[in-house]
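User:
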Amino acid sequence: MRVARAVSVLRMSAELPPPRDAAGRRDAATAVDTPPSSPSFDSVVASSASGPAPAGRGKVVGWVVGIAIAVVLGIGAYAVLGGGSDDDAAGDDADAATSASIARGDATSAQLRIEGSVGTVQLSADAPADKLLALGATGADAAAQATEGSPAVATLSGESSTVQVAPDAQWSVVLDVQTDTVSGDLSAADVAELRVVAGTRSVDVRLGEPTGASVINLEAGLGSFLLTVPDGVGVKVVVQGGAGQVMIDDVTENSVTSGSTFTTEGFVEADPHYVVEVPSGVGTLMVHHG
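Assistant: Predicted structure:
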């Protein structure tokens, strides 16, 4: 816009009519009788005939042209020296929009709710030492946002996303994200609770040693759910809705009806264990040790 104004000023200056001296104007005037001879009158006529064009107009045009040139040169210098800063800032904003984090602080436990709409979600318990939570997103329309609070909220979009949590905290995680697949390894962290509240094609998660009775609640319908736990860890499955198939290690039950309960071999209620609750429905539920 500034360049356009400068060019407009230059154009206006170029179109100004050339100054004409007083003699030209006098020659163009209608002829009159010779004026009476008078020293004072003759001096006035001589002054009018020989005097130059008013100095004011030339100075004004010169100032206008000078200012216009200065504006054009200034804009050009800005474009060369600083014009790229907006693009750089836009690039930084784009990078920042696909990653987010929450500082580690001194929390020993945390709640996390994962929201949004994304193709796949990858979970892991390997956040950087100075982060409680770290998010990343890739693909078309990728975005990641982390909001502090209780619970902390991770909002994701794009083709795939990563969610890293601090391994030295106890976690309660709610999966409320519209996605095709959730998978990952949280065995390095203490997961006290995992809830799936949005429909997902498959959830595949590895958990570590529980410190008490940790609950996994499949509140939304799932195509398949796979839980992998360390050898010797007890797991109880309570089907309140229905399941097409329940597989616990080498034991398989088909067409499981509401009210069915299954436990791993050697399960002891008093020992730390996982409880998988199925209030809705699941196509295939699998529990593996290893």
